[in-house]
Design a protein that fits this description.
By secondary structure, the chain is α/β, with parallel strands linked by helices. The chain folds into three domains: 66 residues, Arc Repressor Mutant, subunit A (Orthogonal Bundle), CATH 1.10.10.10; 129 residues, Aspartate Aminotransferase, domain 1 (Alpha-Beta Complex); 243 residues, Type I PLP-dependent aspartate aminotransferase-like (Major domain) (Aspartate Aminotransferase, domain 2, 3-Layer(aba) Sandwich), CATH 3.40.640. It has 15 helices and 16 strands. The strands form four sheets. It has an eight-stranded mixed sheet with strand order 4-11-10-9-8-5-6-7, sandwiched between helices. It has a four-stranded antiparallel sheet with strand order 12-13-16-15, with helices on one face. Strands 1-2 form a two-stranded antiparallel ribbon. Helix 2 packs across helix 3 and helix 7 packs across helix 11. The longest helix is centred in the last third of the chain and has 27 residues. The protein is globular. The chain starts with a helix and ends in an 8-residue tail after the last helix. GO terms for molecular function: DNA binding; DNA-binding transcription factor activity; pyridoxal phosphate binding; transaminase activity.
């Protein structure tokens, strides 16, 4: 990495961690050159990089200033139907999932982490060694709650999110999807109503469908998350059994709810005496420091069921997730038993060692920085090539973002046209119970190279350019 890139990254980190706030004047070129022992041209190039990222702006005879975020370019606040609905869209979700088997072109629809990172090599070596040296560990039954080694390490990780857990408070699952499904079945009966953000992860929607529940979609802000006012109105009007949220590095919008709103959400659930199912699968790859708190960290009476996994931080193929179910531990353990009994042991032991020896912390530090750079590159490409009225989210973490186009664009038809040109993305209707957000879609910026992603955005722009704005695509 060059000197100007190092300097630009340092300044970028200061800006994103609010050391320099929007509107602040940044140090002069000469001052930075002296402080960092670099040339004037190095500082100028660093500032030029930050200008391209729309993080700073140059003002004549005044210097460089931190840009204010353009809130007008963020996606609109969602306005879902104001009644509980049955979830549909399974066929569309299945069709998209099957594309993984034909991975030609640039596929940006799957929320997959970068699994080529060299920081994963110690984990792979540990897993290989266990398979060779102690293969018998992978053949027999084990603790239904998961290995004690892993549960102990999960409790250590939970401290960063504000939680104080004991290994007996944790149940290991086969990924986060099973964790969410188990929690839904543990706190509901068929026909119950679940309050959920809108848009929301299609896997969450399909878990609601599989449990024969109804989804009450709640209006959601692209920066601060679920509307507590709208949620309270819904709680007054409908017999909602639980609240299902992804408040940290949300999928698909990318926002992180402020801590005070998380606590207010918990107090609201407490006043109505209902459960909260909290999906924290992206929490560890938040760009913020310190890592954001979970709603679970405010939980004093065990009503929050915290779910997560290593599918987004390490690799989905490990199939290691977990639940901190609070007061619902016995019910969750029973549902987990009848669902899949125990989880494979070797991946649990390998990940536990990876955490214990510091490999996980090192991996996460590098991936946070990597994904943040990838986000900035994709945002630049979107700003450069897509229509000027395109709205796009600004993720606080993870590796996905949400794009909103003109209302006359149908993303279900757009995705078909782009797929023929070798580009895939996740169309908006998958993230709603009834197929809303037809002019929206989700992009992943972790797997492909920057060059391939930029090519994909150019193809998308080319397809959009051929659309007659008077008719739907």
């Amino acid at each position: 990495m060059t000197l100007y890139q190092n300097l630009a990254d340092r300044l970028r980190e200061h800006i994103q961690h609010d050391f320099y706030k929007p509107g602040d004047r940044l140090p002069s070129v000469r001052q930075l050159a002296q402080e960092h022992g670099v040339s004037i041209s190095t500082v100028q190039e660093a500032y030029r990089q930050l200008e391209q990222d729309t993080l700073v702006e140059a003002r004549p005879k005044s210097g460089y200033f931190v840009c204010a975020r353009n809130k007008d370019s963020l996606p609109s606040i969602s306005r879902p139907p104001q009644r509980p609905l049955e979830v549909s869209q399974w066929e569309e979700v299945l069709n998209m999932l099957m594309i993984r088997s034909n991975n030609k072109g640039v596929q940006l629809q799957h929320a997959m982490p970068d699994m080529t990172a060299p920081t994963l090599k110690p984990l792979l070596k540990t897993l290989s060694d266990l398979t060779k040296q102690k293969p018998e560990l992978g053949l027999g039954y084990a603790d239904i709650r998961g290995t004690e080694e892993l549960r102990t390490q999960l409790c250590r990780l939970a401290v960063a999110s504000g939680c104080q857990l004991h290994p007996d408070d944790v149940v290991v699952t086969s990924g986060c999807q099973e964790a969410l499904s188990v929690c839904l079945r543990a706190v509901t009966e068929p026909g119950d109503i679940i309050a959920i953000e809108s848009p929301s992860f299609y896997g969450s929607m399909q878990a609601i469908k599989a449990a024969n529940l109804k989804a009450m979609e709640i209006p959601t802000h692209p920066e601060t998350g679920i509307s507590l006012e709208a949620l309270e109105l819904a709680l007054d009007q409908w017999p909602i059994k639980a609240i299902f949220v992804t408040p940290t590095c949300n999928n698909p919008m990318g926002y992180t709810m402020p801590d005070d709103k998380k606590e207010q959400l918990y107090r609201l659930a407490q006043s109505y005496d209902i459960a909260i199912i909290e999906d924290d699968i992206y929490g560890d790859i938040s760009y913020q420091f310190p890592r954001p708190k979970t709603i679970k960290s405010f939980d004093t009476d065990g009503r929050v069921l915290l779910c997560s996994s290593f599918s987004k931080t390490i690799a989905p193929g490990m199939r290691v997730g977990w639940i901190a179910p609070g007061r619902y531990r016995d019910k969750v353990t029973h549902v987990k038993y009848v669902s899949s009994s125990m989880c494979p042991v070797l991946p649990q032991l390998a990940i536990a060692k990876f955490i214990r020896l510091g490999g996980y912390a090192k991996h996460i530090r590098q991936m946070r920085q990597h994904y943040e750079q990838q986000r900035d590159h994709l945002l630049r490409a979107i700003k450069t090539y897509l229509p000027s009225d395109t709205r796009v989210s600004y993720p606080d973490g993870s590796f996905i973002l949400w794009v909103e186009l003109q209302t006359n664009i149908d993303s279900m038809k757009l995705v078909e046209a782009c797929r023929e040109a070798g580009v895939g993305f996740a169309p908006g209707p998958l993230f709603s119970a009834t197929g809303k957000y037809r002019n929206c879609f989700r992009l992943n910026f972790s797997e492909q190279s920057a060059e391939k992603r930029e090519w994909a955005i150019k193809i998308l722009a080319k397809v959009l350019h051929g659309v007659d704005t008077q008719t739907k695509l």
